[in-house]
Amino acid sequence: MRYKSVLLFGAPGSGKGTQGKILGSIPGFYHSATGDIFRSLDLQSQMGRTVWEYSSKGLLVPDELTINLWRQYIKGMEMINQFHASSDILVLDGLPRNVKQAALLEDTIEVVKVIHLVADPEKMVERLRRRALKENRIDDASDTVIRRRMEVYDRDTAPILRYYPAEKIERVEATMPMIRVLSEIIKIIAPLKEQHDDEKDPHPSEALVSHA
Ligand code: ADP
Prior knowledge:
Layout: E1 3-10, H1 16-24, E2 29-33, H2 34-39, H3 46-55, H4 63-79, E3 89-93, H5 99-104, E4 109-118, H6 121-135, H7 143-157, H8 160-163, E5 169-173, H9 178-200, H10 204-211
Parallel strand pairs: 1-3, 1-4, 2-3, 4-5
Helix pairs in contact: 1-9, 6-7
């Protein structure tokens, strides 16, 4: 079974994490951010140090390592009943980050929508500078690293938009107030959720009656 997934897609600073956290608090959705997983690794471990070497420079962590780590993580979440694979819709934030990762994930996730948070790069850079101060993020701390992340996004990540079929891609203006962005995303994902619930349980009220 492949995990039904919605991708939150956009440049660094476009608000994927902010929106993803809110969406993940809605029952039936599970938010998974590779950046958060990477930042939670122990810097004393080999894995933690390798990831840090790349991310602190604004580079992508190698694909196989990223995908294997994420697969282990999500399996773990399934085992401890945080993520319910058959009923939850996965909200993926920061994954896949290039076409190779998208291809590697084909057997694990079924992408039902790609929500593209569209924003002016200069505004994003401003947001990242502010985030550096608030969240103590090493990869937001220098303009050189921020610029490199923007370049990596343009060169490696943006081509994903041509990998998935055009009808799966929804553009949302990311510079609107946060709550407006959220409302646009909800309009896109609410029908998916209803459809998903219907597929799992086409006659919920009859089931209730028969159990009564
Ligand atoms: P942002 O969306 O602002 O770039 P993230 O928290 O998503 O921040 O990612 C922080 C860093 O973690 C990235 O710059 C990159 O080094 C690493 N990273 C996150 N996701 C991936 C991924 N799927 N593949 C490789 N590296 C990743």
